[in-house]
Amino acid sequence: MKFKTVLEGQQAVVFNYLGEGRLIKGPQRVFLYRERLQYLKKHTADPYQYIVVKDKDGLVQHTPGPCFIFNNPLLYELVTVKESTKIDANHLIVVYKRLKDSDVQRRIVQGPTVFVPEAEEWIHTFTWHGTDPQNKARMIPGHNTFQKLAVIPDQFYYDVRDVRTQDDTMITVKLMLFYELKDVTKMLNTTTDPIADMMNAVCADVIAFAGKVSFGEFLSKTQNLSSLSTYPQLVQRAEKIGYIIQKVVYRGYHASDNLQMMQNSAIESRTQLRLESEIEEQKSKLENFKLAKEQERTKLVHDMEKAKQDHKQKIAELEQEHKLELREMEHHKMLETSSLFTKAKLDLSSAEKSWECEFLKKLDDLNVNLTDYLVTQNGPPVAEEIRLINMDTNNTKV
Questions:
Q1: For the chain, which domains are there?
Q2: H-state helical runs in the chain
Q3: pTM, two decimal places
Q4: How far apart (Å, rounded) are the C-alpha atoms in residues 266 and 32?
Q5: What distance in Å separates the CA atoms of residue 78 and residue 58, rounded to the nearest whole number?
Q6: What is the pLDDT of residues 150-164, one digit of tens each?
């Protein structure tokens, strides 16, 4: 006999000696006599969880959170809390549901959403080839297991091994495939591992391409390995399983060690020759550049000298023009001065003659003999001898 306390917010089950039980909800004080009290575990689910309850009769119920429930052994066999499936905008899940007539219904849930399955539903689990962590170009069967399927473009590296050319050269072709899921229903109905299907198809295309050419021709046509026209089987198979191949990128090749050493040696030789050719070409360009700059410098010096000579000649011409202008100005000034002097002299002579005429007129008015006066003033006139010669008779007359 003893007392037990069930606090508020708690629940408990009391079993008697006959195995019968009753539910106790707190707050409550319980007296036990030949009885056993068992506190019930409280299971709580947040908004991103749900509670799975399995009844005694096998019925399973899913209750999305936020909620809580006590694990009552009188009613439930098992109570667990599970995480809801969070789906972003770039993913989806495939959900199957068992119907009452034993049929199975499939539906696709596209994100973004928080998915809580019903009791009769389960999520499809994909098991595909996955990338080897030790070698990104190697795919391991069943390595990639997931439930949320990406619907955005994706890519993977893949090395097609043991590719034999027409001249029996064994090589490994390195590729990178870019793909995108377009039809989920077609993919679910036609394949269980689309990565494996694409790998097999690209292997077939590469082997068909290399088997028609020699190793030398393969090296000269490697640019074709980055064209989708080289991969008809890959494009066709991807379309059948609901995918599209966006592009295939050729990343190079790898041959056997001996062949690779020979190829590396040849590449080094070609690279050395190309570098030497480029060095000589650069030297030639440098010499041409120096010569061109020297010619430009010589032309510049010549132009500068010519400009100096032209400048000196221009200055000399300007000085000559200035001197001529000065001389012309002086000549004009002298002509003007001479003209003024001559005019003044003429004016003076005219004035003197006018005065003399006036004076003689006055003398004439005074009855003065002007001839005698002029003879007295200027002296007698000088006699002049005029000779006439007759050319026929040669006689001379005075």
A1: 146-255 (3.30.479.30)
A2: 184-190, 194-210, 215-220, 232-240, 257-365, 370-378
A3: 0.61
A4: 95
A5: 10
A6: 999 999 999 998 898
